[in-house]
Specification:
37% helix; five-stranded mixed sheet; 20 strands; alpha/beta
Length: 523
């Protein structure tokens, strides 16, 4: 018996397969197959992996999402056809979400935030669930934007849409000229270039807290009550939301968005980024202070758990902390399958690694890779099973010689903004010698650099360090060992093997096309 989980139709679709003994045999993002970054639709190649006798689980309770879908359809009868046409052209996201399309394709479903934290719970390294508390924070899942659970998935505390840390961060991302639900990490990187403005932090805080006056029942009434003041369908400054959701809640959000666009006219982008980051950190830490009362070991997931700057501040609050390997919605494909597997078998921990995707069977010689690096300074690695999650961990990586100032070179190769930082991958036994602070093998924290290899140090003196352990399944470990033996430096620059706005390379054809187009050697 296999346990299959999938996420679909909102953003960052994914699929996972768990064997009966708890071994994760496959997990991947749809984007790696469709070649569309953050693809909301599950690709046909992934759908074909599902067998008739699999127990299939969907990552959220779509009956709740159907409420808004049906309201929208009642208000604008012609919108169903327009949205279907948009999906056919490759569209998707919240406005192209048709829950009935997934009905009948699965056996079970779990709540959105349950799927998020389940991924963390069943992959955590702890032997027991004693003293565990679980937190999920994102834009919104069904009607919740953050949830605190105990280890049995009982809700301790929650916050309801539209009071959302993730949404405010996404609105700001859009206003700064980036893609919401995709480029929040760019805003996080930009935030290091300025100090937050106290008034702007308060602006974000006031809007977030303005919803605190409502009970859950009042939230739902406002969310599904038509705003009769709407006389015509107009686009808001954000280009979405108001014209398709003419409800009382949407009108409150529209007013905030209009004010946000005015902020753009009077403040530098770096200051806005620093301010929304500070707001987010403040509110995340508030949630975590509540969670800490219920457990000393934290399981953390949801899209907001990808904010590594905030993660580093959370870590000191708990005795131990485990962040889901793929915290966003694609990772919930593994979480929902894991929860069903645990319920059916009584299992408590999965057998897994981060290398779960498409398998490129290369026979890489680490000495040849290092020879090339010492001569050309930059090369790619495409070998073994692709990483599951947002980080390249050595199997789909672009690596570079840290002894040289290669940051601009690598950013230019990837077509990224030059202010964007890069991460170091370092041999486990030397990590504390080169970095102070929390770090792990999945690049989920920032730490202070104790060296002067500037290509892997951000403007604030921090690095998103990848600790490469001795039992690492990637060839990256052997490459680092060879590089250290020949240079005396135990780390390399490591970034994802992709171009900005495109998914990481997945298969042999991707490698062939990328290598010829961008003239960078890939081993």
């Amino acid at each position: 018996m296999r346990y299959v989980g999938f996420s679909n139709q909102f953003h960052d679709a994914g699929l996972s397969i768990i064997e009966e003994d708890g071994s994760v045999s496959f997990a991947s993002h749809s984007e790696r197959y469709s070649k569309r970054k953050y693809d909301p639709r599950l690709s046909e190649e992934l759908m074909k992996l599902i067998k008739d006798d699999d127990i299939v689980t969907f990552y959220e309770d779509i009956s709740i999402r159907k409420k808004m879908h049906n309201l929208r359809r009642d208000i604008f009868p012609g919108e169903q056809k327009r949205m279907s046409e948009s999906l056919t052209r490759g569209g998707g996201g919240v406005f192209g979400y048709f829950p009935e399309e997934d009905e009948g394709t699965y056996d079970k479903c779990h709540m959105h935030h349950e799927s998020h934290v389940a991924q963390g719970l069943y992959t955590c390294p702890w032997k027991t669930n004693d003293d565990i508390v679980m937190v999920s924070i994102d834009g919104a899942g069904e009607e919740q934007t953050s949830v605190i659970y105990d280890s049995r998935f009982n809700v301790i505390d929650d916050v309801h849409d539209p009071q959302s840390i993730g949404k405010i961060y996404s609105y700001t991302t859009k206003m700064l000229g980036y893609k919401p639900l995709e480029h929040e990490y760019i805003v996080m990187g930009l935030s290091a270039y300025a100090e937050p403005d106290k008034n702007l932090v308060q602006f974000f805080t006031d809007y977030y807290e303005s919803y605190s006056q409502y009970t859950r029942e009042e939230f739902l009434r406002l969310k599904y009550t038509l705003d009769t003041r709407v006389k015509e369908r107009k686009r808001s400054g954000m280009g979405f939301l108001y014209h398709r959701y003419p409800t009382m809640i949407a009108d409150l959000e529209r007013r905030f968005i209009k004010k946000l666009w005015k902020v753009k006219q009077t403040h530098d982008a770096k200051v806005i980024a620093a301010s929304v980051q500070k707001f987010a950190e403040n509110k995340i830490l508030e949630i975590m202070r509540t969670a800490r009362k219920y457990g000393s070991k934290l399981i953390y997931s949801g899209g907001v758990a990808q904010n590594i700057v905030a993660n580093s501040k959370i870590r000191d609050m708990f005795d131990d902390m485990h962040i889901a390997i793929s915290p966003a919605d694609s990772g919930s494909a593994l979480g929902c399958a894991a929860k069903t597997w645990a319920e059916e078998t009584g299992g408590t921990r999965l057998k897994w690694s981060p290398y779960l995707g498409y398998d490129i069977k290369n026979n890489i010689n680490p000495k040849e890779v290092v020879d090339y690096l010492l001569s050309k300074r930059v090369c790619g690695i495409a070998n073994g099973k692709a990483e599951f999650g947002p980080r390249a961990l050595g199997n789909r990586s672009l690596i570079a010689d840290v002894r040289y100032d290669v940051k601009d070179t690598v950013n230019d190769i990837k077509k990224r903004e030059r202010f964007r930082p890069f991460a170091p991958a370092i041999l486990e036994e030397y990590a504390d010698e080169y970095f102070d602070g929390h770090k792990n093998e999945y690049m989920q924290y920032t730490c202070k650099a104790k060296h002067d290899y500037n290509s892997v140090i951000h403007i604030d003196g921090t690095s998103r360090c990848q600790v490469v352990k001795k039992d690492c399944q990637s060839v990256l470990r052997q490459i680092l060992e060879e590089y250290y033996e020949r240079t005396g430096v135990p780390m390399l620059l490591n970034t994802s093997l992709n171009i900005k706005g495109q998914p990481m390379l997945n298969d042999e054809q991707d490698v062939k096309e990328w290598q010829s187009k961008y003239n960078v050697r890939i081993f």
